[in-house]
Amino acid sequence: MLRRWLRVCLMSLVMAGGGASSNDEFSIRRAVLYPSGSHYALDADITYDFSATAIEALENSVPLTIVLQCKIERERSYLWNQTVIDYRRRMQVRYHPLGQLYQMTSEDREASQRYASLRSLLTALGTIRGLPIVPAERIEAGETYRAGLSVWLDIESLPLPLRPAAYLSSSWYLSSAPFQWSFERSE
């Protein structure tokens, strides 16, 4: 196990000078907030294109943590916008070589999901449906709100021996451009 981690660290250091290809990033294709019971829920479609370095680390049993952030602000004509909520969800993905299964765990769920392939894991990770974001009473009628959604790979959650190499290599800096939209409460 230690040899695998050392090999991943060495590969990351070697690739530090290289840089990531232009497809090594995350992209948000669609996002919408809608009333769902006592909350406003999020539906989103996200594409995850991991770098070869990140995939190699994952396949060598290094857990990767993805952070999803949804920030909602109430637009105001005076001063600056008022933040209603800054929601963050951390999802950890890992590979279990013995069972040849990928696993996704979220901090807001007790159970984890298992997948037979990396492709099926990334599809499930990128398909968000009905995720409660903000209590409905925090969204007032007649007000305009700006929502922003972004995702990134959390380098700080990598194992300590791997972090220095990750800081030096652009192939670990994986994130989406912010996806923003406006909405109003419909009554």
Percent range of helical residues: 10-25%
Let me know the largest β-sheet. Answer: 6 strands, antiparallel
Average of pLDDT = 87
The rounded distance between the terminal residues' Cα atoms is 57 Å
Low-confidence runs of at least 5 consecutive residues: 1-24
Rg, Cα atoms, Å: 19 Å
Into how many domains do the coordinates divide?
1
Please state the overall shape, judged from the principal axes of the Cα atoms: elongated
Helix and strand sequence:
HEEHEEEEHEEHE
Q: Please, how many helices? A: 4
Estimated share of beta-strand residues: 35-45%
The neighbouring-strand order within the major sheet is: 6-5-4-3-8-9
Say how many strands there are.
9
Secondary-structure-based class equals alpha+beta
Describe the structure in your own words.
This protein is α+β, with helices and mostly antiparallel strands. The chain has one domain (2-6, 26-181). The chain is 20% helix and 43% strand. The protein contains four helices and nine strands; from the N terminus they run αββαββββαββαβ. The chain has helices spanning 2-15, 52-59, 118-126, 163-168; strands spanning 26-36, 39-48, 64-74, 82-96, 101-106, 113-115, 127-135, 144-153, 179-184. The strands form two sheets. Strands 6-5-4-3-8-9 form a six-stranded antiparallel beta sheet. The longest helix is centred in the first third of the chain and has 14 residues, at 2-15. The radius of gyration is 19 Å and the shape is elongated. Residues 1-24 have low confidence and may be disordered.
